[in-house]
């Protein structure tokens, strides 16, 4: 089926600027302590004043990226800089020899929790890179590169990060590889590409394909043994279709940027397999977890419909259609778009609810918490608009 690119480009722009953006801004900007208050209910009222460091970096990146690519609105720049100032003053653990960052802080910036993983560093790195592009500030560019270096050092230096699993049954995850890939892409886009960034992107795609993409099962594993072998236990059989679709479009994007058809083919293969695994044929929407062997999943929320896998599916299906022209991707895109906007969208207050039951009924009125903020949904709207606007004929 062909897509009406002109109509859909307008649809996504309108959803971004007239529905999603007004829900969050300016009311989420913390004018007292800086950064963003993002743990909110259906009407935008604050549920909790604590702040996710992830969210401060992601929201700053999104605002600065919109400033760089959509419209040069000075308020977007100012709000993005507010998030960066909060991160600079409160995001870093000054007692950490490596300068690692916290995950969860109070409204004022007092630390609450620090995680094993270094994703706070990656999300702050992309925010600084976008700021460097917006302002030309060399310090922001330097900070972005330093945080990326810290992120890959922490994630890929053997023995540096405390292991999640004991030596009895060690496993590694796809997450650090896919986030390294997209973080390097963002730095290349905003700061300029170089051999180091390309090397990391090549390495991560190679490891994802070699270790996590499983042709014999036609799926993308979330966790495997360090040598890539399957671990036949709950955690080892776990599939996360939304995560795999997100990784798929990261790889497709690399293929488009570098005109590498093999990357596009790999990303499409990942999307094909995980769409087949993830789409709920009975109720619609994308399952949160599946089991590689078709067995029951341990996590009780396995059949819920979270907002972000649907946002990632919007991007992945549209990108696959743009790059290949295959009709099935256009059909999948429309299927997930119509289901998502029917079930997640809030016509009264705007934005998407975060969590639905399997049948699409609302599980909670939450629209923001330590995980959900102004990131996955606006990124999908912005990217889909951009891809469709590039396809649409001039007005």
TrEMBL record:
Source organism per UniProt: Roseimicrobium gellanilyticum
Query: Which SUPFAM superfamilies does this chain map to?
Result: Six-hairpin glycosidases
Provide the GO MF annotations for this entry.
isomerase activity
Keywords assigned:
Isomerase
Family, according to the entry, reads as follows: Belongs to the N-acylglucosamine 2-epimerase family.
Tell me one Pfam family matched here.
GlcNAc_2-epim
| GO biological process: one example | carbohydrate metabolic process
Q: Where is the signal peptide?
A: none
Segments crossing the lipid bilayer:
none
**What InterPro entries does UniProt report for this protein, alphabetically?**
6-hairpin_glycosidase_sf, 6hp_glycosidase-like_sf, AGE/CE
Tell me what this protein is called.
N-acylglucosamine 2-epimerase
